[in-house]
Hints:
Layout: H1 7-23, H2 28-56, E1 59-62, E2 73-76, H3 78-94, H4 98-105, H5 114-130, H6 134-153, H7 159-189, H8 194-201, H9 208-224, H10 234-240, H11 243-277, H12 281-300, H13 305-325, H14 329-360, H15 371-374, H16 376-390, H17 396-410, H18 414-440, H19 454-472, H20 475-488
Antiparallel strand pairs: 1-2
Amino acid sequence: MAILQHLPALQVTVPLLAAPLCALMFRPRIAWCFAILTTWATFAISVAIMDQVLEHGVLVYDMGGWAPPLGITYVIDPLNALLLLLVSGMAAIIMPAARLGIGVEVVPRAQRLFFTVALLALTGMLGIVITGDAFNLYVFLEISSLASYALVAMGTDRRAAKAAFNYLIQGTIGATFILIGIGLLYMMTGTLNMADMAGRLRAVHDTAPIQAALAFILVGAGIKFAMFPAHVWMPNAYTYAPSLVSAFFGATATKVGAYTLIRFIYNVFGAEFSFETMSIGWVLVPLGLAGAFVGSLVAIWQDDLKRMLAYSSVAQVGYIAAAIGYGNHDGLVAAIVHVFNHGLMKGALFLVMACVILRLGKADMNSFRGLGKRMPITMGCFVVAGLSMIGVPFTVGFISKWYLVLGAMEADLWPVAVLIVMSSLLSIIYIWRVVEVAYFCDPPDDLRVSEAPAELLVPTVLLTVLCIAFGVATKITVGVASLAASQIWVMP
């Protein structure tokens, strides 16, 4: 079919064109229904793209028929096909719950435009993942970032505006660093097409501008990625944003940042230059481990459970950074697998917070007293997703931790493997604190709550089930991640 040839373009243009149409719909319910259809269509396109990539190999789509390096090209391989699946899939799962979420967690004056901004954020993330043009990646990064700042600011908590402002300042610094790095690359290669740029870089690897470009992009992507110590924007942004926004960002935003880092390190600069010449592994691995320990330790002492999950994300981002820094095939597989798996886990946990906030209006530790009896399905989802975060067998978390350890062993970094296991055990403490309060403490006498409505509870259960399903059947995650790593790993 002719339409199949244009799926890469439709992946971005469908949500992009749908966003302003939502703004014209003055009834939030109509806009919500339209946004659901848009996200489902976007997810269907990503599934079709994944099928084509697995069947036919890398897809190349020249926008407007302009061939590279003059035109903008979309290039889809197993790596970004998996990321497209994650980003669009999370949007498709979370959007049906958005109507209830915005009713209690979004300021009334912003509710009509919520879906417009959400679709723009989705467009930006999809564009970052699918484009093969470095400057086009920056443009989509800005689209996604501006929409993200607005979504965080829509929270009803007065601190949401301050959190969004801090996010904006640090996000702008990160984007500026990335833009400077891209500018240096263009100055030395004369092209913005990533594939063409990678070929021309081989002749100028030993020059100072290229080395500076790697440093700028590493710092900029690290800020967007919330890699320790550039993570300070994340806790407040995730805590004070509406819970459904936290669920979507927790599952996708940092993962897109990780993708950007992987794409530049392995495809543009090349693994040999990045790891042998510039030795970035000596930066990524220590910072990743530091983030894993600091994030987990701070999470243990949090009473606000959304903040606890935000610091937990700092730890999980640390694992991804360390895996990228291994500089080997298994480490790359571990990073890609954990990008996908952590998206499922964190999306499920933040949706649990949305269910509790809908019923109780808050998500602090005290409000969870006795909820195991009052909201058994919701708390069951928390337990399963929490066990996955710990890395219990038959969950996606176990698959991630297994490949993280394998990657460290392949790199002869036995102490790193031990530290990864030790830091994973810290997550038992903060997950157990919630389980203890929910199941072993008596609920207040005046507590009269029930499960959240189906349109919020069903997405929560679905993501929880996927945490088990992809932990048992790993063909999509490990299979695609291994294929992706094999295609972009070129250093002997």
